[in-house]
């Protein structure tokens, strides 16, 4: 059946206006794409803690380096162990014989993958260094392994696509999924600096964990991301990179910190899961995965905004005129946060108070409980306490706060 011009234009308009949730994008990656292309959902018959083998003897040393990084990132996302093999019957076979980049799987009739094949040509990766993480070659390997594990594209396209014509929803972009064809700047709906994707993104994580389960041992201890990182060699490199890069942090537990103290730009560090942060001079380039809780944030030399979540947070603004932002939503769980370096007359504490319906609720300076603890001050409101260290209560007045 052929659509009329009017119907086609209407369909494209709908694609440009409907906005998918991260779960809806994940559902499309996992099921919708395969249905739209006449194929079925597929996965390997494994779960977190199990092992898949791979054979990359057909790759150059550079190709192997990119493949190993990409496999490590998917292992973080799934809890699946990837083990090198020389067998032609390995679960995933890598090669570079053909031009371009693609992946396919066999034995998917019952929804279970028998074997997957990944091809990324030598010319595809020729311009990039395998020592770097902010490049299209690493992004390509992560993308193609995503296919090998059972993920489709962000919308019904393959090979090439044009934003505004081929996307099924407005926010189809690299910000949400490495399986998308549209960069942050090609997509005119999302706001964000151009950045190569260095990890599976937030919707990819939901999709792959819906397929295989959620790992419980990915950086389950107390982890620092960014400066002075303790997240492991690869994730340290990604979160310390100052190039054109975007990434999602997935973490299984512990008492964790985002440290961007070496930055000189005005940064936004948002500790809430599923939200974007803007770090190292780029806009909306860091995402915290849904279900991931990060407790602490450290800003840099710029005028930073640090946004608390519902855990007990420790916030350090660093130099500059910083804003410490707290969302008070309904009858939220009581928490005790700490601001370690508030500077009276320079920094600002901002409260946004909403009721359970998301509507603005009354809050002002007179409604705050301000308690002098000697060297420190405790600010209380609605079950939440914020300890401002090394600042006496007499030094805090309405001018230090914003209520909006």
From TrEMBL:
* Domain of life of the organism encoding this protein: Bacteria
Tell me a GO biological process for this protein: proteolysis
From the Swiss-Prot or TrEMBL record, give the protein name: Serralysin
Give the primary localization class: secreted
> Keyword rRNA processing: yes or no?
no
Write out the annotated subcellular location.
Secreted
Q: Output the Gene Ontology cellular-component terms.
A: extracellular matrix; extracellular space
Which InterPro entries does the entry link to?
A: Hemolysn_Ca-bd, MetalloPept_cat_dom_sf, Pept_M10_metallopeptidase, Peptidase_M10B_C, Peptidase_Metallo, Serralysin-like, Serralysin-like_metalloprot_C
Cofactor(s) needed by this chain: Ca(2+)
The record's section on Pfam families has: HemolysinCabind, Peptidase_M10, Peptidase_M10_C
Q: Does the keyword Metal-binding apply?
A: yes
Annotated ranges, domain Peptidase metallopeptidase: 40-184
The UniProt entry's sequence similarity note says:
Belongs to the peptidase M10B family.
Q: Which UniProt keywords apply?
A: Hydrolase, Metal-binding, Protease, Repeat, Secreted, Zinc
Any one Gene Ontology MF annotation carried by this entry is: zinc ion binding
